């Protein structure tokens, strides 16, 4: 019976981990450009000197659903939605380069272009700054122009360009800070000049709330089934002990 208990207990633990991931997805159903977390599991036999009669559930490398979320048009000049597989390069708190598709940008008091969470936005030569008090326009290719008070609209100079990258899904992974980072051993990403953005728009979360609710119900039922298996194994053990004690 211990094999049955071991297998059910292992599966119950992974079901709880899966439920936590689904709950996090559901909580971020309205977070701009959020990528749903995906957890995969597989059965693995226990390797040891004894016979391989036990197996446990093992979590595969967690990933993310990279399909695009719906676009909503805001008309705000500093809002950009990444088209295709493009990602926006930002500077993480530790100084490294990270990537996001959340394009709700803002200009700080010192003129630095930042994300909604205050992270500097990277350009081809580093963090982008614009003249304070200027009106900023972002083109479809990521080019940034700034128009100061009283300046004519014609002949405006480009003050920077968003660094847009096109990584493969296998080369980046979500970090604890919510940003995506290069995996160990991956080559540094260079700007992709073919990528385009949609100015005045934001990408929504790609989480489907209905599917997430269904997954939560399925996980709850799966966990209940595994608990019943453990209880059944315990009951069988007690009955077997009772029969042996009567002999």
- Rounded mean pLDDT is 85
List unreliable stretches of 5+ residues. none
N-to-C order of helices and strands: HEEEEEEEEEEEEEEEEEEEEH
Strand order of the largest sheet: 8-7-16
Structural class: alpha+beta
**Beginning-to-end CA distance, first to last residue:** 21 Å
For the report, how would you describe the main beta sheet?
A: 3 strands, antiparallel
The percent range for strand residues is 25-35%
Rg value: 26 Å
Give the helix proportion (percent range).
25-40%
Total helix count? 2
Number of domains: 2
- The strand count comes to 20
Shape: elongated
How would you characterize this protein structure?
This is Flagellar basal-body rod protein FlgF. It comes from Cupriavidus basilensis. By secondary structure, the chain is α+β, with helices and mostly antiparallel strands. Helix content is about 25%, strand content about 25%. The chain folds into 2 domains: about 1-65 and about 205-245; about 70-205, no CATH class. It has helices at about 1-25, 210-245; strands spanning about 35-40, 40-45, 55-60, 65, 70-75, 80, 85-90, 95-100, 105, 115, 120-125, 125, 135-140, 145, 160, 165, 170-175, 180, 195-200, 200-205. Strand 13 and strand 14 (about 145) form a beta hairpin. Helix 1 runs antiparallel to helix 2. The protein is elongated, with a radius of gyration of 26 Å. The two termini are about 20 Å apart. The model has no long low-confidence stretch (mean pLDDT about 85).
């Amino acid at each position: 019976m211990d094999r049955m208990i071991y297998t059910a207990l292992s599966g119950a633990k992974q079901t709880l981990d899966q439920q936590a991931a689904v709950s996090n997805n559901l909580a971020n159903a309205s977070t701009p450009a959020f990528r749903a977390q995906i957890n995969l599991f597989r059965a693995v036999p226990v390797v040891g000197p004894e016979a391989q009669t036990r197996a446990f559930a093992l979590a595969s490398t967690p990933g993310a659903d990279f399909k695009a979320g719906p676009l909503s048009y805001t008309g705000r000049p500093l809002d950009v939605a990444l088209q295709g597989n493009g990602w926006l390069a930002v500077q993480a708190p530790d100084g490294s380069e990270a990537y996001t598709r959340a394009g709700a940008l803002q200009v700080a008091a010192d003129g630095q272009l930042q994300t909604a969470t205050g992270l500097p936005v990277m350009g081809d030569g580093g963090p982008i700054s614009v003249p304070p008090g200027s009106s900023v326009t972002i083109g479809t290719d990521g080019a940034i122009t700034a128009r100061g008070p009283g300046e004519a609209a014609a002949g405006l100079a480009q003050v920077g360009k968003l660094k847009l990258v096109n990584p493969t899904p296998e080369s980046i992974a979500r970090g604890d800070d919510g940003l995506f980072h290069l995996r160990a051993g991956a080559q540094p990403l260079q700007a992709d000049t073919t990528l385009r953005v949609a100015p005045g728009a934001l990408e929504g979360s790609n989480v489907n709330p209905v599917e997430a609710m269904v997954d939560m119900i399925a996980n709850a039922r799966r966990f209940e089934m595994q608990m019943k298996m453990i209880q059944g194994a315990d009951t069988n053990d007690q009955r077997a002990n009772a029969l042996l004690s009567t002999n």
